[in-house]
Structures are given as structure tokens and as C-alpha cells.
Amino acid sequence: MMKIDRRTMLAGLAAASAAPPLSARQTAAGAFHPGALWPDDKGVHINAHGGGLLRDRGRWWWFGEHKTAGEGGNTALVGVHAYSSTNLTDWRDEGIALPVSNDPASPITRGCILERPKVIRNPRTGRYVMWFHLELKGRGYGAAQAGVAVADRPQGPYRFLRAGRVNPGIWPANATDADKAPGTILARDMPGGQMARDMTLFVDGDTAWHVYASEENDTLQFARLVPDWLSHDGYYVRVAPDGGNEAPAIFKARGRYYMVASGLTGWRPNPARLYVADAVTGPWRSLGNPVRGTAEQAATTFGGQSTFVLPLPPARPGGEPRFVFMADEWRPKNAIDGRYVWLPIKWEGDTPVLRWRDQWTLADGWGWKYDATNTVRPELVEGRAANDPIASCASTGSARTVSGSVLLPRHQLQQPHHDPADDDPHHRRAHRVDGPCHHAR
Fold first, then answer.
1. Given a cut of 90, is residue 367 above it in pLDDT?
2. Which of 2, 101, 244, 344 fits 157 for a cystine, CB–CB 3.0-4.6 Å?
């Protein structure tokens, strides 16, 4: 692991000491507790916000923003944190994969804004490639750049390569004459490159795509990467123009492409948005809000904002792949206290949907049934726990079979935490406004 200096180490220790203590319920092994504190192997709440996962050589790797205590923790004072696991519930701290720099001239100097890091392994080179949203120190959210780093091992150390706007001097492949007209944000930014804020990476076969909120967060853009995945190849498209989407998370299921995104409300949660397409480049069609539950849950996406969708293998041979929706519950007044909302994605016909679960495991996560009276029944498909290739690799015996039906009305399911600080207008994102208070998560 890359060595970090004493200042960075002290910042990390101070942040860890400021985190709330972990309760016995929150440290129960083998189960997911959305919105609860999540301890690593050292008993410290996992610090990998806005992150994504990579499956590599028998382990899952979780990369995310390392946040520190207080409002200052919303800037990058440490770097990108890495964790690894064999079962998705018990995580080993692998240290800082990409530290911020002590050089004030570096784009990733301490105090910059470094968000939503994602890592993919290139099969041609065998190297691990990290992309992230970068804002230069002292410029608020005006820089809107994409950064890239590379490593020879999943845990790093990652070497920062460069940062900048995307595809300067190139028009999107699907841009119309109206899109190119003087006065549009697309035309304004074309010479120097397109803005890149909230982002994810999506690998489709041997092609990797950089997906990001652009054009002052009005429009998503999908930019193709070159074969080594370290830069863009010049081909990109606009998706959901003027839709005001951010926090994209993409997955492929049943021969189609799905995307979960959010609206623009700063740190405050808002209704999730679901899109579908027959090709990754679109056209994309809206499927509305994927959340099923109470009005509050639908309006706030259970208190979280999308960051990634994790594909899992089928529970049994011949079964369908499973998917886990990953979201962040932001705590802007004390950034290190942000939580994680992981939920199994279920289906209503060909529409993926999300329902709140106070607790779930890989064995029972896809077995809940809802009846006509709006009641949830934890009915596990027979044999799934025994055959689940993921649950069986857990170090603790968490998989179990549910016999009978335990009725639990939806209104009794635990509600997501609401922090009044999230309503502070200081943290609300202004649409098409750059500056210190314009947060482009």
C-alpha cells in the first residue's frame, strides 16, 4: 500500500475518532443493514463514500471517498480508500489507494474535491484504472474535470495521470444543429472540453464507457474510452438532454441496459429516476421512479442517492443474475458519518424496482414477496441458501432458510434517517450556478 505522510495519517485518525460508536446490532455479521453504521475489520465505520465495486481474483474491492469529520470533510483531505471482502458484508481495510498530494500545484492537492471514484481492470493490460470527478481546490464546482489514475494491483498504489475536461474540440455523435448553435452550453464548452461531474464507469464486453453529468448538470454524456481505458477516444453521445440528471448507475439485464439516476437537490435526497435502452448509446427511455413503498420513501429514495449497481452471479446454476443497488446517505454537517444504503433489485415484469429492507442477506434478499394488501412476506426460494455461491463463501454462517411466512406491513419497515442539516439551503445545489455552494454530486 502506498505510504502516506504524517499529516494525512493524523487526518485519518482524527476522522476515525470522530465517528459514532458501533452498536451490537450494527456489527451483526452476514447481513446488510441499510443506513446503519458499517464496521470494517478494525471496528471502524467504512469510509468509502460515492464508491463502486470491482470483482477481482476471488475478492470484491470497494473504492470510495475517504471523508473526515465536520463540514470540511466534504473536501478531499486524505484520498480514495479501498476495502476488500470475500462475502460483501465483512470488509478488510486495505488503506488509501490514491492519496491526495502535498504539492499545491497538483490537481489533486489536499483540499480539492475528489468524488465518486470507480475502478475497472483492463483485460488487455492487466492494469487497474481509476476514474473520478475532480474539482480544483478553491474553485468550488467550476472546474468540472475528470481525473484518471492507474495501478498494478487493485489496492494500489494508484499513480495519478491527468485531469481535464472531456473530448475538447469534438461534437457528440448525436448532436443536432440546434445543440451546436451558439449560446448552448454544449457549444460553449466544445473548444475546451465538456464538463464532467457525477460519474460512473460501465464496461460492456471489452468496451468501457465514462458516464457523467455534463452541460451544467443538464445532460448526461456517455464517452467511450480507448482500449487501455486511460483516455477518451473522441466518441460520445448526449443522453436525456435537459433532464437534469446526476448520480448515474448503470447495469445490463435481460438483454437491455438500465440506469438509475437522481435529480439535482444538493445533499438532500430526491426521487430516483429509472431509464432503459436497447443499446448503451441509447435512445434511453424513462421508466419513472423505481422505488416501491411509502410516499416518503419514494420521494427520498430511502434517504439515499445512487452511486453504483453491483451485478452478482445467479443464486443457483441456470438462474438469473442478481443486482444490488448501492446508494449514499449524505451527512454534510459531519461528512464522515455518511451511511450506505444497499438494497436488492427486484423485478415487476421487465421493470427493476427497489423496496426498503431493514435487514437482509444474500440468501434471502431476493425472496421477499408483496401481496395485494401491501404486506411483505419473507419467502425464500427453496434451496437458494444452500446453492448461493456468494453466501457459501461467508466466514460466518449467515445463510438461513425461512420456513413459513412472517407478515410485516410496509409501514412498519424502518424509515431512512432524516438529518435536518440536509435541508439547509446552503447545501442545495443551484441549477446552472458555479461556485462554492454549487455541489454537483
1. no
2. 2
